[in-house]
Amino acid sequence: MSEKRIGNYLLPPGIDIFERGWLSANNIFLFGDDDVSLVDTGYCAHQQMTVDLVVNALKRHGLKTLNKVVNTHLHSDHCGGNAALSNEFDCEIWIPEAEAIAVQDWDENLLSFKQLGQECPRFRHHALLLPGKEITLGPYRWQILAAPGHDNHSIMLYQEEHQILISADALWEEGFGVIFPELWGEGGFEEVAQTLELIESLSVALVIPGHGKPFTDVKKSIETAKSRLDYLSSDADRNARHGAKVLLKYKLLEWRNQDLATVNQWISGTPALESIRQQMNLGAEEFQDWLVQALVKSKAATIEKDYLVNLD
Predict the structure, then answer these.
(1) Cα 271 from Cα 238, distance rounded (Å)
(2) Cβ–Cβ < 8 Å for 67, 35
(3) In Å, how far from its chain's centre is CA 38?
(4) What's phi and psi for 39, nearest 5 deg?
């Protein structure tokens, strides 16, 4: 088997990284003699692709089945393939401890999917991820670390021997995920800062982020993230506007194109966007127009014959 290098870092055996696009988060396939696990499962629109990626990895490595799925957090791009994988492999599903009641009752007021205008097929969990504890993933033991900010229930996974951090959306090469808790008044700026400080305190040679390619210049990425945090936290409306644009862009990635009437209906029916509209003190139609035009001005979309069309 050929060695895989990421920069100057030699990836240890038993780890495959499925780098996905922005609609589906990256998946990490970890395999050893006693355990085969997958960290995060992508968006439901890509669930068959997620199953196919796992099936192909099992065949490639001469493995029989997937033992468990581990979710860093329960945003739809990280857990949308849970149900399909559970049906295919009868695998266990592990979720952050704080999400247990929400998943058990499938409480849409506690889960993020409805709030963010997204979808996720219902799944059942079997075990909980407790910060401060360890978990076996493939051939290695990983520390479970709390990573509030982007999602206040999120966790990261750290392998000390090989200095690998699975950071989910707490740290990307050039930033981090939207600070969603701030959009509905829970607070997230300080939590992001605390999570970045935690990452700084670790010996990390490789970061596998929730989106984008794995990277090794951790110091530079933390500096970029801190600068981004300062920029967003200095103006609450700035963070809100950013969050609104990301939510619509994400939905447009799923749609590819959509008539403006349906787009506006989705905007008005998405609770997180309604919170942002109120924070910005705009009327419903004014907010819809602003949000669509904001995506067009940023060259993330264009309008063609009353359709909003995604631009990659």
Answers:
(1) 18
(2) yes
(3) 14
(4) -95, 115
